[in-house]
Specification:
The protein is α+β, with helices and mostly antiparallel strands. It has one domain. It contains one helix and three strands. Strand 2 and strand 3 form a beta hairpin. The N and C termini lie far apart (about 25 Å). It binds zinc ion.
Length: about 60
């Protein structure tokens, strides 16, 4: 979906990621394709399967479900 990826590039920099603690994409509402864990901080990042957006998640310990 090229349109969604373009929208993501425009929208993602405007999103305050610390305020978005949900398991769905802040840009398009899509479900994450996978989660990546940062080795040093343990912070989790999710990758959107629709628009390829990446956002932080799980710092507050909320379950993805
Ligand atoms: Zn998305």
């Amino acid at each position: 979906m090229p349109y969604l990826q373009m929208a993501c590039e425009e929208v993602m920099p405007r999103i305050v990621q610390s305020l978005w603690q949900r398991g769905c994409c802040p840009v398009c509402g899509g479900k994450p394709a996978f989660a990546a864990l940062a080795k040093d901080s343990g912070a989790r990042s999710l990758l959107c399967s629709w628009c390829s957006g990446i956002w932080g998640y799980g710092r507050t310990g909320v379950s993805i479900l």
